[in-house]
Amino acid sequence: SPRGVMELTAVSREPSMRRSRTGAADGSRVHVIRIHSCAISSDEADGFHASLPNAYQLAEAKGWPHQFRSEPVLATPAMPVSAWPNRDPSAAPVLLRLMLGSRETAVNSMTPLGLHHIMGWGHHYGPGPWVDMAERPDWNSVYYHRADSAGVGFDRTPSGSNAAAQYFPPLDRIFSDPDSCPEPLLLWFHHVAWDRQMKSGRTLWDELCHRYYSGVDSVRVMRSLWDSMERFIDAERFADVRERLRIQERDAAWWRDACVLCFQTFSRRPIPAGLTPPAVTLDRLKAIRWRPEYIQKGSTWVP
């Protein structure tokens, strides 16, 4: 591949998971996945040094959910270490912890419990749960979270859009019932009361706040873990990831404050005990006009 581009092709022949109207499988099919990732440099796929294992895992698993194991392909000592120069197998456990936990950290930082499409208008980078000025309803954040004094979430059950009916049984029934719907998808499929009790024992409002705060706390843990990797990673890459994690913590706090304060205007409930209320006002956060230089290395911008 040319410098700056990573290409990966995976080919698989598997029985089709799609069924005909009679319920019979419609035969085997050949599946091809091709990843084409523009990069900042030839060894920094997709602009981030840790992207290589993501592509590796997809190709190794051939991209089909029924082949995924409870322990991902990534969770082998060789793979995370092979993504970095100056390899040392003893670094693998920490690298695995960082990478395998990164998805849930991002979800809790931005869109926990099934929230979605609440990013800022025009740039899709920072938070914007208040966005309501787009010319099309489904370009607005408020269209998707539907927050009001009663609760929050998009009703995709038969009493709402009925989008859950697009899933085959038993998933259609599972997703349509708030008692059986997985909590990570709850607000995707349901408009849920603020005082609904969650599995943690908290109300929905308190759980939502705790998820946003845990997103920030998790990034802080990631930063500490990465700092412990300095002796295993070459100086250039170590410094680059360290800077990205600094920006990620700043942005996680931005998302937390914006979303908690915005949804609080609907819930009319206090920030749960033990969580420090945001030091910034909602009006200040709404007034931010994001610029690309805010995410450049060395940026001192703070929301």
Give the helices and strands, then pairings:
Elements: E1 5-15, E2 28-38, H1 51-60, H2 78-82, H3 92-100, H4 102-110, H5 141-145, E3 151-152, H6 171-176, H7 186-189, E4 192-193, H8 204-227, H9 235-267, H10 282-286
Antiparallel strand pairs: 1-2, 3-4
Please compute the radius of gyration using only Cα atoms.
22 Å
Major beta sheet, strand line-up = 1-2
Helix coverage percent: 25-40%
- Number of beta strands: 4
Which segments are poorly predicted (pLDDT under 50) over 5 or more consecutive residues? 1-26, 35-46, 61-70
One letter per element, helices H and strands E, the order comes to EEHHHHHEHHEHHH
User: Which quaternary structure do these chains form?
Assistant: single chain
Number of helices: 10
Strand content: 5-15%
Largest sheet, in brief, is: 2 strands, antiparallel
- Could you tell me the mean pLDDT? 81
Structural shape: globular
Classify the secondary structure makeup into a structural class: mainly alpha
Q: Whole-Å distance between the termini? A: 39 Å
